[in-house]
Amino acid sequence: MKLKIGTRGSRLAILQTGIVVEKLKTVIPDLREDIKTIKTAGDLRRGKVSTGAFVNEINRAVLRGMIDIGVHSLKDLPTRLPRGLELACVPDRATPNDALVSRDNVGLFNLSKSSVIGTDSPRRIAEISSLRPDLKFKKIRGNIETRIRKVDEGLYDGAIIALAALERLGIRDRAAQVLGLEEVVPAPGQGALGVVSRRGAGSGFLKKINDARAWTEVTCERTFLEELGSGCRSGAGAIAKIKGKDIELIAVVHDGGRRLIKLTGRNPVALGRRAGKILCWAKST
After folding, report:
1. For labelling alongside 60, which of 66, 93, 101, 132 has CA 20 to 30 A away?
2. What is the CATH number of domain 1-91+192-210?
């Protein structure tokens, strides 16, 4: 069986696609993969990088039949996909935490006052500022390796990077500090991969590599994000964890102050919606 698979061209994206391919080979022994690298608006930096900037071109290629599936970092994937596409599966998830990479391998609370931290994420800026309001933040561009090199060269004192990215690149030891899930609440879906296909196409074999636990957790997180709506998402983070028969959800928004809640439930969609309603209501009062 031949399968055309779309991905971004960074080393991390290729490695992530390789993870999906290896899982597919366990259910399709005769798989012949044809990896297509696609440049996205996020890669080309055409103006402001917005929601979907790292995935839209790949999703359009799936929709047009140029490729069969697209592999994404799930945190980059909008909660609503174009008509005709579906999130077909979520393979098992890597560690969802954020991590600090620093030039001298110094932890967050040992950084000098007014140290410059590289990140483009409003969520990361808001969360780190709640812990170290004295730090300064500066946009940082490039793939993971480029960002780390900029730190090493002294252009930044540190950078906030998804721990899953460091793990997949084999450089977890560059994490000077792994940030706790309640200290810095991750982006919904962080650490997970999302495989997009045309609706109903190939869903049988893709479902076979779906991880039920990861699917449940990210469904809860993405439902929370969708419930917030476009007006409430600034600085939003969410992480769900299955604990026995229950799901525990930690969610945060920043609206001039940090609002964090912890909720427990058994239905991931209902739990995500409840958290979104609570935090949007809190913002409007």
Report:
1. 93
2. 3.40.190.10
